[in-house]
Each structure stands twice: as C-alpha cells, then as structure tokens.
Amino acid sequence: MDLTKSETYHQTRRTMPTLHRIRTEVERLRQELTLHNHRYYVLDDPLVSDAEYDALFRRLLELEKQYPELQAPLSPTQRVGAPPLAAFTQVRHSLPMLSLGNVLSREEMQEFQERLQRFLKNDEPIEYVAEAKIDGVAVELVYEQGKLVVGATRGDGETGEDITQNLKTVRAVPLVLLPSHPRPLPARLEVRGEVFLASAPFRQLNQERAAAGEPLFANPRNATAGSLKQLDSSVTATRPLDLFCHGVGQVDGMSLASHWDLTQALQAWGFKPVPQRRLCGNLAEVFAFFDELQAQRDALPYEIDGVVVKVNSFALQRQLGEISRSPRWAIAYKFPARQATTKVLSIVPQVGRTGVLTPVAELEPVGIGGVTVRNASLHNMDEILRKDIRIGDTIVVERAGDVIPYVVKSLPEKRTGEERLFQMPLQCPVCGAEVEREAGEAAYRCTGLACSAKLKESLKFFCSRGSMDIEGLGEKLIDQLVDKALVHDAGDLYQLTQEQLASLERMAEKSAQNLLAAIDKSKTTTLPRFLASLGIRHIGEATAKQLAEHFGTLAAIRQASADELQQVRDVGAEVAGSLAHFFAQPQNSQVIDKLLAAGVVFPAVAARRDGKFSGATFVLTGTLAVMTRPDAQKRIEALGGKVSSSVSKLTTYVVAGTEAGAKLEKAQKLGLRIVAEDEFVAMLQE
Ligand code: IVH
Questions:
Q1: Which CATH number goes with the domain that contains 135?
Q2: Ligand 1, closest atom to CA 135?
Q3: Distances in Å between the alpha carbon of 609 and those of 612, 615, 637, 641?
Q4: Exposed, middle or buried: residue 332 (CB in 10 Å: 0-12, 13-18, 19+)?
Q5: Angstrom distances, CA of residue 69 to CA of 22, 27, 175, 359
Q6: CA angle 184, 188, 193 (to 5 degrees)
Q7: What is the spatial distance between Cα 149 and Cα 57, in angstroms, rounded to a whole number?
Q8: Could you report the per-residue pLDDT of 82-120, keeping only the tens digit for each?
C-alpha cells in the first residue's frame, strides 16, 4: 500500500464518527451470524467452522457490551439471557388455531375424499400435500416487516401464552427473516409449526433427570411442552428444541396459490418446512407416502405419529372452510398406536455397569406396533412410587421409536387387591453385597467390589461397537467368560487362549480363531475410544475426545489433577472429580496397565490446534518458582503450544527463570522474545 493512501485511510478512520463505524460493524456481524445460523440450523450445511462462528459471535457480544446503546432484542446474541418472567401473558390469535380430525384406515381416508367431493359438488381428482405429522407442540410465530414480534402457544386455539423468550432460544426459529426474490416478505406473517425435541436428546435429558432423582418426562412431546413452559428461558435454552413449520395464520400481502408453494416460500424465508412431504395427485399416492413413512418411522431421529393430508389449492381450501373447529380440507391419518395395556408379572432389579440397581418390570407379553414387548424399565424407585406401580398391576406401556418400552401409568381402577408393593432389596441380587443409596441420589447401588453383574456389564460395554468394538464378543460369551472365571477384568480379554475359548459352549474351533483375531484387531484403537470404553462415570465419547485433544496422551490424562482436568472444555467439577477418582484407584490403574502391556495402542492425538499458543514453541530455562517445569509444559501444551529443549530461531518464547544460563544468552543473541516467569504466568491467565 502506498504511503499517501494509507494516510488517508487512517485519517478517515479517525475522523469517521466512532459510533457510526461501530454501528456498521455490528450490523454486518448480525447479518453474518444470522446467515451462518440459518446455514447451520436450518440447512444443516454450515459455511464456516464452529471456531469462526464463535469468533464472530464473541466480537458482537463484546461490541454490544461496550456500546449498550447498540443492543437490540433481535440480535443473534439475544437468544438467551432475558430475565425470568413472573408469569406468561395471554396472546389472542388473529385466526384461531384449529385442530384436525383423525382417521385410521384407507377406508376412512376414502370417505374423507368423498366428503370433499360432495361438498365441492365435483368428483375431479383432488391434489393433496401429504406431510409427516410431527409429534410436538404447536406454536405460532408472528413477524412484522420480517422481524419476530411474538411467539405463542396454541392454548385453547383462540388464546395462547406469550412464550417469545423461550422460542427465541430455539435455533430453528428465525429472529429476522431472509429476504427472498421472487417471494417478497409479507408485511405481517403468522407462521405455525411444531416445536419438538429429537429422540436422542430426549433420552439424554431423561437419563440426567433419573440420575438427579427428578421426575422423568413420559415422552418427547411432554418434555417439549415442559421446556416451553419455563418462566426462565435459560432453562429452555439448555434443551435442544427444534421447529418444523406446517402452515400460516393471518398473512398480509402474500400471493401464494397453494400449500406446496407456501412450504417453498417458508423455506426461502428461513424456516424449516416439514422435511417429509409430498405433492400427491390422488389418494393412491397419499397411501404410498403413508406406507413409506411408516416404514421409516423408527429410523427417524424424532417422533411422528401419522401423516397430515391437506388439500393443496388455497382456493379450494377457502371454499371448503371449517367445521367444528377443524378445517374441512385437512385430516390426520394416524399410524397405529404404539401403546398397549398389559400386566406387571414381577419387578426385578438389574445390576448395571456402575452397580446401579434398575427395577425392570416383567410384563405379560404384548404386541405393540409389530413387536412383542416382554419387559420395560421402571428407571428407579422414585418413579415406581410416583406412578404407584405395583406387582400385578394393569399398566399402559408405550414403545416409541428405538426407545426402550416405557411404562406410562398404572390403571388403579383395575386392581383386585392381590397387587403387591415392590421394595428394593437390601442385598445385591447377584453378589449379595450391601445395597446403599447415597444421600440426595435416586439410585440404589451394589457396593460389591467384585460383583459379577457389574463386571459383565462393564465388559459388555467395553467390547461393544461404540467402544473397543470386538466383533463377535457379545452378551452370552461374556457371561460365560465371567462365570467360568476366565476373565476378571478387561485386561484378561487379551490373554485368552484358543483352548480357553474353544472350551466355551457353542464355540467351534473356527469361531474361536475368529474371535481371537477380532480381539487382536481391537488392540489398535484411538485414545478417545479407549477412554470412553473404560466406562468412567460421565465420560462419554464427546468428553473423551475433548480430553484427548487437550492432553494429547493417556499418561497426561492419568496424571492430571482435578484442577487441570477442569481446564478442558465441557469438564466441570463433577466430571473432573469422577475422572480423578477413577484413576486414583489402584485396581483401575492395574487394568489399564494390563491393557497397555497386552499391546493396546492408540496414536497420540495432536494437541489442540486452535489454542491460544497454537503454532508457538516455548523453551523453558532456569529455575521456575511458581510452578514446576513439567507443569509449565503441560499448561503450554494444553493451550496448543509446543515445548522444545533447545533454543533456535524457530523458538517463539523463551521463559527464563532464575539462574538461566546458556540458553538465555543464545536467545538474546538471536533476538528472541524472552519472558520472565511472572509474565509467563500472566500469559497463561490472560
Ligand atoms: S396442519 C388445523 N401439518 O397436529 C391445523 N399440523 O392434531 C392444521 N401437526 O394442531 C395443521 N404436524 O399442531 C399440520 N405437518 C403438520 C403437522 C401438524 C403436526 C399438529 C398441529 C395440529 C395438530 C392436530
């Protein structure tokens, strides 16, 4: 750049009113973040990395903090953080939010069509849009000039509750709409849709609640409703809710001709329409869609409970109008129920990997949606008491997606007087050790150190596909290996011989060979996988990955103090405590050493590349007063830097303690950046 130009540039920068310049930057950041949010949450096709997004987000936060006059309620930073409400206010819907009639068979669908044709006095084929019926909670979002003004529940259809703060935490709810040609934004747009919680986060939420002794949600829909009813939106923000849109209320200034066009316009403005939808020329096509969707139902990541069939043309919809609070032009064609009633034959406590006793109801076998259900988890004692489930009770069970069958409720009106209350045993049903309940915990645990049930469960976990992935080493074999005392811990798996395996039931020579090969193959793994396989409480795959990236080696993780562990992203006091406790136990260390000695290997993970010391090489010299050298090295590596023992022109920093000698001299000669210990400590804390 030539000097004069650069001068002018700086001059403008200086003379341009600061606030104006900042305002421009803030506007630009908001636009960019809105775009990235849409790419990530709506299109599932991000343009930038999480780190780049975070950097933009932090910059915006910083500017808004520094210039409070620039804060705005629809800024991407304002999805969370509103103060808790005392109560929700009521919102009247401009057009009532109707409900839908239901049908359960093709015959009834046929009758629906005949009603339409009679009403229209015309038996030409009708074009429909068939869409998945999302099992969530209906909401309405109101936009004026493309900006979100209110979000509300359905309520009684006429009046709902203002849950704007909570809906703003849902990433799929656009705060500001995207302009789109050739579909100009209506001046006022009321969008309707279904908020839902996907099955995986639902299960996780319930697991957390079970562990904390809190009441469980019966299904994802209840969890969604509970999350949207929070007066404190920071609670809602912890639930990864999502939204699919399926219609509109009042719209000022729109010229769309059909529901199909509407779904496309909604998509262009930044919403997610229901992904499973099809334009159908006749009922046969609707039936084909219904069958396809039902076949996919269990594999979908969220719950659907049928297909909504809508007349496509808006002109026809208007002509058809509504009847008894339901549109005449739409119907819910429901899947068969996945609930059934049956009897509790007994309740059996099962001992899990961590020693927790889970009461499982053994049921009179009952078919639900094509599967025979024989037992269902009752989770814990608190749940049994809360639902008042007794041995001999008639109960309602639900099978939802891949979720374990779930006891919804008991039916006390069906009791005969023969029912018995369940009690947790005082002794472990497997090893006889004492069962105890820690204060404040919902779970009862077996205290037996050598409980074979715990061992079996932890071995099953260790060998499973998501863990060490030992093909062919399943439940039955593990039970035998433990029962025959061939295996006492995971380390023993790698000492098994051909003869030992061949001695097991239903194990031919060839399968024994295959199993040995599979065990051998599992020895080469990755550090996160290995860590997660150990079944340490609170350490799942994601946390294991963070730990591995932070520390690089297993040795570093084993040595880390609880404080050091807490430097890792997502690791709080509880997780750090659990890790430190695990590694502090000699039995666990022995098993790990045994595994390593048997040849289990994993390449060290490259230390985090995006730390604040990424790319920097440090040399430590002299005596450090505040921390030891190994500690300093760990801290540097944790922040992405490298430590080298010799000074060269590639060295970024030389940390000089007292009595630093030759290395310091060389660093001075090379003109390297030399930092004293206190300066180094300040860098770490920055
Ligand atoms: S269209 C008159 N489409 O199901 C309402 N609704 O049982 C027209 N729902 O209140 C709604 N998925 O909250 C429509 N793809 C979908 C839907 C859907 C779920 C909900 C909606 C409605 C309820 C009726």
A1: 3.30.470.30
A2: 19
A3: 9, 8, 10, 8
A4: middle
A5: 11, 13, 20, 57
A6: 95
A7: 23
A8: 888 999 999 999 999 999 999 999 999 999 999 999 999
Question: What is the distance between the alpha carbons of residues 254 and 245, in angstroms, rounded to a whole number?
Answer: 17
Q: In this predicted model, which residue has the larger pLDDT, 261 or 671?
A: 261
227 shares its domain with 111? yes
At residue 460, the pLDDT reads 92
Residue 615 or 513, more confident: 513
Helix (H, G, I), strand (E, B) or coil at 371: strand
Instruction: Kindly give, in sequence order, each residue whose CB lies less than 8 Å from that of residue 247, ignoring residues fewer than 6 positions away.
Output: 191, 192, 193, 259, 262
Q: Mind listing the pLDDT tens digit for each residue in 520-538? A: 999 999 999 999 999 898 8
Q: Domain of residue 155: give its range.
A: 102-334
Q: 274 CA distance to ligand 1 centroid (A)?
A: 11
Res. 1 pLDDT band, cuts 50 70 90: very low
pLDDT at 605: 61
Residue 120 lies in a domain: yes
- pLDDT: which is higher, 557 or 615: 557
Query: Does some domain include residue 419?
Result: no
Q: Is 133 annotated in the active site?
A: yes
Instruction: Check pocket membership of 272 for ligand 1, CB cut-off 6 A.
Output: no
Q: Are residues 257 and 347 in the same domain?
A: no
Q: Are 328 and 259 members of one domain?
A: yes
Is residue 207 domain-shared with residue 313, that is, in the same domain? yes
Separation between Cα atoms, residue 395 and residue 410, nearest integer Å: 4
Decide if 12 is inside a domain: no
Q: Is pLDDT at 3 greater than 80 in this prediction? A: no
Specify the pLDDT at position 585: 84
> Is residue 491 a contact partner of residue 563, using CB atoms and an 8 Å limit?
no
Determine the 3-state secondary structure of 42 from DSSP. Answer: helix
The CATH number given to whatever domain includes residue 665 is 3.40.50.10190
Q: How far apart are CA 37 and CA 45, in angstroms?
A: 10
Residue 560 and residue 541 in one domain: yes
In this structure, are residues 527 and 605 in contact, taking their beta carbons and an 8 Å threshold?
A: yes
Q: CA-CA distance, 459 to 475, in Å (whole number)?
A: 9
d(CA 468, CA 304): 34
Q: What is the CATH number of the domain that holds 508?
A: 1.10.150.20
102-103 and 330-334 as β-strands: parallel, antiparallel, unpaired? parallel
Ligand 1: residue of 131, 158, 246 to mutate (most ligand atoms within 8 A of CB) is 246
Pocket flag, ligand 1, residue 259 (CB < 6 Å): no
Percent of the chain with pLDDT over 70: 96
Angle at 211 between CA 206 and CA 216, to 5 degrees: 35
Domain stop point among 307, 334, 361: 334
Q: How far is the CA of 309 from the centre of ligand 1 (A)?
A: 10
DSSP structure string for 377-410: E--SHHHHHHHT--BT-EEEEE--TTSPPEEEEE
The domain total for the chain is 5
187, two tokens: 């001046």
Angle (nearest 5°) at CA 596 between 593 and 599 = 150
For residues 133 and 282, membership in a common domain is answered with yes
The predicted-structure confidence for 149-169, as pLDDT tens digits, reads as follows 999 999 999 999 999 999 999
120 and 172 fall within a common domain: yes
Q: How far, in Å, is the centroid of ligand 1 from the Cα of 407? A: 27
Provide φ and ψ at 628, rounded to 5°. -80, 165
Any idea what the Cα angle at residue 413 is, between residues 407 and 417, rounded to 5°?
A: 95
* Mean pLDDT score of the chain: 90
Average pLDDT (33-39) is: 93
Q: Given the residues 5, 65, 121, 133, select the one marked as catalytic.
A: 133
Which residues lie below 8 Å from residue 187, measured CB to CB, with a gap of 6+?
144, 145, 252, 253
Last residue of a domain, one of 308, 334, 360: 334
pLDDT of 209 over the 60 cut = yes
Residue 57 lies in a domain: yes
